[in-house]
Design goal:
It holds the Pfam family TauD. InterPro entries: AtsK-like, TauD-like_sf, TauD/TfdA-like. One of its GO terms (molecular function) is taurine dioxygenase activity. This is Taurine dioxygenase. The protein has 274 residues and is α+β, with helices and mostly antiparallel strands. The chain has a single domain, classed as Double-stranded beta-helix (4-Layer Sandwich), CATH 3.60.130.10. Helices cover 19% and strands 27% of the residues. It has five helices and 17 strands. The strands form four sheets. Strands 1, 2, 3, 4, 5, 6, 7, 15 and 17 form a nine-stranded mixed β-sheet that branches. A three-stranded antiparallel β-sheet has the order 14-8-16, with no helix packed on it. A three-stranded antiparallel β-sheet has the order 10-9-13. Helix 1 links the parallel strand 2 and strand 3. The radius of gyration is 18 Å and the shape is globular. It starts with a strand and ends in a 22-residue tail after the last strand.
Length: 274
């Protein structure tokens, strides 16, 4: 396995067949995800069955209720622009942060690549935290953000909101990441009124998604990309897409991110296994 880090986040992993990954070797991949945030596995010849086999090496799978499942593979969901009269909309976010224990990892495999456009962007949320001014860190330290679900019609017994630390220690690396999502999903910050909270989220999101803190991944046939939802934000760029863009997505439960000796609890938090 060869690792080629990319700037400002991520790494390209070559000389690795995903079919050869086992639950034991997946622990090394988890460490790489905790360090680099995003891993690109190019040239993979995997169908949905093999994709699932790979994902299950990392832990129990998670599925976003309300998404469209892949036919015959209910643990995967379809991300597609096919048949749409208007392009999908995507803002920088983390997946399912409205859950008490959000997914640890998300992965996409290419099914169909458009002739033009359709890149996915990732941010380095470790670097975003580390670049915050000291006075802002002091003002925000210890605060939590209330994340809510948007765009999904969920049953009453489904989770729809959760509270997470704004400065989130990663359960595997121990490094602190700036943990937030799209403004529509971040509806409150502890100890702030609504206007101050909205302004703060907007400022932090702008800070996180500066071009110098963002990796743009251009998809190629055979790409599988996996990322750590605690270390990066992501969004798809649907502008100027020419042709069909189809991906199949799988997610791994949040409990998979930490091990018996690597979990890091946020002071005063009841979110073990993040």
């Amino acid at each position: 396995m060869q690792l080629n880090p990319t700037t400002p986040v991520g790494a390209v992993v070559t000389d690795l067949d995903l079919a050869d990954v086992t639950p034991a070797s997946a622990e090394e991949v988890k460490d790489l995800l905790a360090e680099h945030g995003v891993l690109v596995f190019p040239g993979q010849e995997v169908d949905d069955a093999a994709f699932l086999e790979f994902l299950r090496c990392f832990g129990d799978l998670a599925f976003t209720v309300g998404e469209t499942p892949v036919d015959g593979f209910p643990d995967l969901n379809v991300i597609s622009n096919v048949g749409r009269t208007t392009p999908p909309r995507s803002q920088f976010h983390v997946d399912s942060s409205y859950m008490r224990v959000p997914p640890a990892y998300t992965a996409l495999r290419t099914v169909e690549i458009p002739a033009q456009g359709g890149e996915t962007l990732f941010t380095n949320q470790y670097a975003a935290f580390e670049a915050l001014p000291d006075d802002l860190v002091e003002r925000l330290d210890g605060r939590t953000v209330t994340h809510v679900v948007t765009g999904l019609d969920l049953d009453e017994d489904e989770e729809t909101q959760a509270e997470h630390p704004l400065f989130r220690p990663h359960p595997r690396s121990g490094r602190t990441a700036l943990y937030l999502s799209t403004p529509a999903r971040c509806v409150a910050i502890s100890g702030m009124d609504d206007d101050e909270a909205a302004s703060t989220i907007a400022t932090l999101l702008e800070h996180s998604t500066r071009p110098e803190n963002t990796l743009r991944h251009a998809w190629a046939p055979g790409d599988v990309v996996m990322w750590d939802n605690g270390a990066v934000l992501h969004r798809a760029d649907h502008s100027d897409v020419v042709g069909d863009r189809v991906m199949h997505r799988g997610m791994v439960s949040g409990a998979a991110a930490s091990g018996a000796d690597t979990g890091v609890a946020h002071p005063g938090s009841d979110h073990p296994g993040w």
